[in-house]
Automatic annotation (TrEMBL):
Keyword annotations: Cobalamin biosynthesis, Methyltransferase, S-adenosyl-L-methionine, Transferase
CDD domains in alphabetical order: Precorrin-4_C11-MT (cd11641)
Organism lineage string: Bacteria, Bacillati, Actinomycetota, Actinomycetes, Mycobacteriales
Protein name stated in the entry: Cobalt-precorrin-4 C11-methyltransferase
Residue ranges of the TM segments: none
Organism: Rhodococcus wratislaviensis
Family: Belongs to the precorrin methyltransferase family.
Annotated pathway: Cofactor biosynthesis; adenosylcobalamin biosynthesis
Residue stretches making up the Tetrapyrrole methylase domain: 2-208
Record-linked InterPro entries: 4pyrrol_Mease, 4pyrrol_Methylase_sf, 4pyrrole_Mease_sub1, 4pyrrole_Mease_sub2, Cbl_synth_CobM/CibF, Siro_Cobalamin_biosynth, Uropor_MeTrfase_CS
Domain of life: Bacteria
GO biological process: cobalamin biosynthetic process; methylation
Length: 249
């Protein structure tokens, strides 16, 4: 039997993979991450499935349920918001399942930052402007950030900066990034990306904090900072250049 760690996407129920939908529909046990996973997805669970909200459960309690299902010969659809490879807390579950000899697979999903970029209508890697993306967060009540992964240090490259779960620290984010990006650097905040109640805010590092406060955005938001957000006059990508040599294969 297998535990499937499934990326349930950023919020819209139809932003999941065909593979994820198929696994959910065939799994007799489904564990999902509370309000972060759209309720419409749970309708995909088979009739009679055991559906459990893990929002109030500890890690040990969650893993015990996974091991219990495996012992009963049942596949498990373990739904996480976004994509399991980013800020999902999957690593510690996997470590325990490996120790217990329980098989698992990871099914990728649409991460919040790509849904936010789609809402902004912007590519985050623009030729001649930025070809790198930094995905990070700020220290909160959750796990502390590793040493040297503060925003000032990460911002020295000038790469497109994506800060997850940082809306309530928007003053800190704007202040620390201004040192390397400048007050006039474009910035955006997208809350509840892809959901009906989505909020999209655009400004600069000098103005974005006031917009976030005025909109009452405090959580479930992605902060994006970089010149790519307002890039104009950049060179075309060489990928489709007429001067590029192409083969017939």
């Amino acid at each position: 039997m297998t535990v499937y760690f499934i990326g349930a996407g950023p919020g819209a129920a139809d932003l999941i993979t065909v593979r994820a939908q198929r696994i959910i529909a065939a799994s007799p046990v489904c564990l999902y991450a509370g309000s972060l996973v759209p309720q419409e997805l749970l309708a995909e669970c088979p009739e009679g499935a055991r559906v459990i909200d893990t929002a109030r459960l500890s890690l040990d309690e969650i893993v015990a349920l996974l091991i219990e299902a495996d012992a009963a010969g049942q596949d498990v659809a373990r739904l996480h918001s976004g994509d399991p490879s980013i800020f999902s807390a999957v690593a510690e579950q996997v470590r325990r399942l490996e120790s217990a000899g329980v098989a698992y697979q990871v099914v990728p999903g649409v991460p919040a930052f790509t849904a936010a970029a789609a809402s902004l209508g912007r590519e985050l890697t623009v030729p001649g402007v930025s070809q790198s993306i930094v995905l990070t967060r700020v220290s909160t009540l959750s796990t502390a950030m590793p040493e040297d992964e503060d925003l000032r240090s990460l911002g020295r490259s000038g790469a497109t900066m994506v800060v997850h779960l940082g809306a309530h620290r928007i003053d800190q984010i704007a202040e620390e990034l201004t040192e390397n990006y400048g007050r006039d650097c474009p910035a955006a905040v997208v809350a509840f990306a892809s959901r009906p109640d989505e909020i999209v805010l655009r400004g600069t590092l000098a103005t974005i904090a006031d917009q976030v406060k005025a909109a009452g955005v405090t959580k479930t938001a992605v902060v994006i900072v970089g010149r790519v957000l307002a890039a104009e006059g950049f060179p075309d990508s060489y990928l489709y250049s007429a001067t590029r040599e192409r083969t017939t294969h």
